[in-house]
# Entry
Amino acid sequence: MKIGFLGAGKMAEAILASAVQSGLCDPWDVMACDKVEERRTLMEKQYGVIVTDDVAQTVKSCKVLVLAVKPQDLDALLGEVKKLLTDKHLLISIAAGKTLATLKKAAGPKPRIVRVMPNLALMVQEGMSVFCAAKNAKPADKKLVAQIFGSAGSVLELGEKRFDAVTALSGSGPAFFAYVMQAMVEGAVALGLPKEAARLLAEQTLIGTGIYLQHTGMEAGDFIQAVASPKGTTAAGLAVLEKSSVKAALGKTLAAAAARSAELSQA
Ligand SMILES: NC(=O)c1ccc[n+]([C@@H]2O[C@H](COP(=O)([O-])OP(=O)(O)OC[C@H]3O[C@@H](n4cnc5c(N)ncnc54)[C@H](OP(=O)(O)O)[C@@H]3O)[C@@H](O)[C@H]2O)c1
# Structure
């Protein structure tokens, strides 16, 4: 089975690198199509995959196509290849805000379609990818998508109506966690820690907390109770968080991101 990437930018590279390096695909079964020569050279040298700037050739050679151009370039790309798409093709779109219905309209009724919302952590094999499939997608298509994106992190299938919330939490979420981290680093520097040390401590504490919660399956609330002994240092800090309505602010943050995702999907 040959996998073609239409667009070989940052996200395509992350997916392709994990798929090849994990042994899921052989490099000679992967075709990276990009109009930028630099990207093609990098893909060829770094991963040994076949490269081209010929979109039609990629569509003819590969039955699985990952659509990895910017959302604003997708309609033109699909318009160019629509007549070449058959019911043997599986389209996997990672374009933010492009719904299954929009994709079907642009690609025509023949190809099977899966929509994926990955995140940037895919680049360090710790991505979170959520997918939904069109009615004509087969169980084998979903399995393949889970394998491809699973080679670069975790994967979950959810109904498309959840995608605005997904976009807010795992799509935009890395920026929100980074925002909290930035504030904690600045706070620690104000307390006298050198910046580099503060950064290391904050990063490792964020990673450690996430892994601990994931491995133990503990609820975040129970974890907080376990760390915060009565009248201790954590309790003193938590009292400030509670008074500052941080929970409410984060709730509003996610709601704003989800509302924007809904707007963009309708554009
Ligand atoms: N970055 C994220 O965190 C993230 C998260 C979730 C989903 N996504 C989605 O991932 C997709 C890719 O994002 P990215 O950041 O990887 O984009 P990117 O780095 O801009 O890569 C896209 C590449 O495709 C090329 N291209 C555009 N139209 C083409 C065509 N018709 N034929 C061949 N190549 C073409 C672009 O060339 P030019 O630069 O010359 O246009 C560029 O090199 C987007 O749809 C985005 O919504 C991104």
